[in-house]
Amino acid sequence: MPDAENPSRHQDLLLHGDPEPVGLLADPHPEDAAHPGSGPVPLALLPDGAAVGERGQLLVAGVDVADLVAVVGTPVFVYDEEHLRRRCREAVAAWGSGVAYASKAFLCQAMARLAYEEGMMIDVSTEGELHVAVSAGVPPTRLVVHGNNKSEAELSRAVQLGVGRIVVDSFDEIARLERLASAAKARPQVMVRVTPGIEAHTHEYVMTGQDDSKFGFGLASGAAKQAVARLARPGSPVELVGLHAHIGSQIFSVESFAKATAVVAHFMGELMESADAVGSIREICMGGGLGVAYVDGEESLSIAEWAKVVREAASAAGVPGNVALTAEPGRAIVASGALTAYTVGTVKEIPGVRTYVSVDGGMSDNPRPVLYGSGYEAFLARCVRSPRPRKVTVVGKHCESGDVIVRDAQIPEDLAVGDVLVTPVTGAYGHSMASNYNKVPRPPVVFVRDGVARVVVRRETAEDLLALEDPDAPALTAEALSSQERR
Ligand SMILES: Cc1ncc(COP(=O)(O)O)c(C=O)c1O
Questions:
Q1: What's the number of CA atoms in the CB half-sphere (13 Å) around residue 112?
Q2: Residue 352: which residues within 8 A CB-CB, separation 6 or more?
Q3: Ligand 1 mean position to 329 CA, how many Å?
Q4: What does the alpha-carbon distance between residue 419 and residue 383 come to, in Å, rounded to a whole number?
Q5: What residue's CA is closest to ligand 1, atom 5?
Q6: How far apart (Å, rounded) are the C-alpha atoms in residues 58 and 46?
Q7: Shared-domain flag, residues 60 and 91
């Protein structure tokens, strides 16, 4: 129900000078029923500010994507800034000011600043993410620090900065953190990450809440209880403020969220009965994971609906009203706010087998299809509402047969070399997981708003690819090597 989440979408489409009403999935092509997916791309998958221009071309926030591409080239990530802001505001309205944006989904300084401006905290899971967020001007108190293997340096920086929350993940980390906090004479606020033993219905690589997980403290094993007891003991150098659970990503099942909440709530109940620790637990964060629609026919919950499910489950399980329920969505904030524009370079037809359409990016800017077998839609920027009767496989330019962007893509009949091909819903885990495989420079990120485009991350250059290299590097001296401390 993405439109229920965003009732003003249709209105927006008409705002951008669209001469005729834009039909939402309503193109009168009778053949669509016979060939699902062969109609025009569902506009509900596009950013809120997407519209169809006078010539049928794609506009995002009033910016003509073909014009943009003529200036910045392809591939390019185009983010609708107002769409992102709206989702952040929705998250704050649904969850309160403790809700954090999971920056692993997509992070650059512009995004960190945007999420902060709209009232969200920022969840960072490495020192690198922390650095970007702080550099963007996010106050450390608005940061939540995650990670299953936080280094001494990462924990130390978090403690020195005085971040809002550190979500502790292991006994080794607790020992490290206690030592650092004592030395710094700081008392960081921490949450305990528990694994509730819930198998979310999602890809196994993005499932995190099951007992057999590298993340967090198991409930079933008693580890979570032990961690709470240790962190809440009198004289503890850290302040335990809450419990945290994250069961995975791209989850559509309401039951999984409800079950996980009930399990965490039950654990809290146990703590209430047995330990004085519970007095300090004033927050439960149920992580992120809300699924989003990527392809025709998929429907997702809105952020508000998700929050409602968790709230009801918590209340039914007896979580006291004064305990704040929070979350840390990533994908649901950014995924559908962006699209990727590529240029078609070659079209190879293998009669009776398939047609390969090669574009100028691939697994280096969107590894999700390769990693998780994820599906996407594809369409042409010059004819958003065209039917897409032709089935092809859209592939990238990398030296891998697996470098597929859309395995069974429906595209307009007249697709040709030089066309700008667009894949929607690429705002999450695309740019953030991008690589330089085959020494392909990473694409730029463009924010568009009110008819204005800003390149907030420039395209990498060939020079950037050499920036870390030193082929004539001097040898490390024996002295330098022997002066390193050994453990
Ligand atoms: C601890 C934690 N919180 C939040 C998220 C964000 O998840 P999503 O982008 O699916 O909302 C993740 C990502 O897997 C995560 O590991």
A1: 26
A2: none
A3: 6
A4: 10
A5: 288
A6: 10
A7: no
Q: Are residues 259 and 405 in the same domain?
A: no
**Is 92 contained in some domain?**
yes
Structure tokens at 384: 């958003």
339-374 residue pLDDT tens: 999 999 999 999 999 999 999 999 999 999 999 999
In ligand 1, the atom with minimum distance to the C-alpha of 332 is 11
User: For the CA atoms of 243, 247, 249, 253, what is the dihedral angle to 10 degrees?
Assistant: -120
CATH of the domain at 218: 3.20.20.10
The number of the ligand 1 atom at minimal distance from the alpha carbon of 249 is 10
Number of domains in the chain: 2
Answer yes or no: do 221 and 307 share one domain. yes
Structure tokens, 49? 């500010």
Q: 444-464 burial string, b = 16+ CB within 10 Å, else e? A: bbbbbbeeebeebbebbeeee
Domain boundary among 313, 334, 355: 334
pLDDT per residue as tens digits for the range 34-52: 345 799 999 999 999 999 9
- Tens-digit pLDDT profile for residues 141-188: 999 999 999 999 999 999 999 999 999 999 999 999 999 999 999 999
